[in-house]
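Repro:
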Amino acid sequence: MNASSWKYLIKEGFRNTWTNRMMSVASICVLMSCLVLIGCASMMFLNIDSLISRIEEENVVMVFIEKDTTKEDIDAMGASIDSINNVKDKEFVPKEKAWKEQLATMDDAEAEFFTEISSDIPLPDAYKVVVDDLNYFDETIDEIEKLDHIDTIRENKDFAKKLVSIRHAIEVIAVIIILVLLAISIFIISNTIKLTVYSRRLEISIMKSVGATNNFVRMPFIVEGMILGIISGFVSLGLVWGLYELAVTQFHELIDSLNFTMLNFGDYAVQLLLLFIAIGILTGVGGSVITMSKYLNKEGSEISGV
């Protein structure tokens, strides 16, 4: 097809969208419903993932250092911890600081008793280590245990495994929900476009009778599907944004009580818009192609027989 043919087909796609605006509105509403559900589910899963990430950062590994270890050896140990691939961060905790924090958790009488009974600090120096990827938690602990001048290591492998399992479960659920909603969208859009095709079967039959190819007949419907998908993407983003801000406002007291900060929707708006447009175009074009193929691939079908 030459440039003029493409121009004509694209123009026909826009014209068809307006001419069959009732069907177009129905398609947009159906697709919007699915995109809004996908967007809300995505933001929910992103916030859950953020919460799990925060919990992971609090699941630190305490590496206690042997008594009478020199400063040079302590510094060397810190450098060795930094060299371990899966270590995200580490902090040296001197025993004086740790003891002061421990006393702060006691009541006055108990703190006074421990300070008067002995001037010695009963805690060792330590490194607080944050693991980057909990999938490799055990391997990281094994690497740390090989270091010199370690007294003991305090870690919680069971808790780390539970966090990994929760994260994987959330990822699987998110993928399943998106795929199911996408399949539902394609199915409904296909049936909606089928009604459009049926209402224009005489026009299509005439085009086929004068020698129009299947691609030539199909292209306006594909353009129409792309238009519907793009419109649905933009409108869905606005709806999801509004619903998200409403939820943050309504549940801010509960969120604050959990000491958790909800993600800023604006930071993910562009990614969600691109996702919505991609899904919208895929669904609209996919529905158009599936529906048209069922008609155009049948010789002597109800279209050519009209």
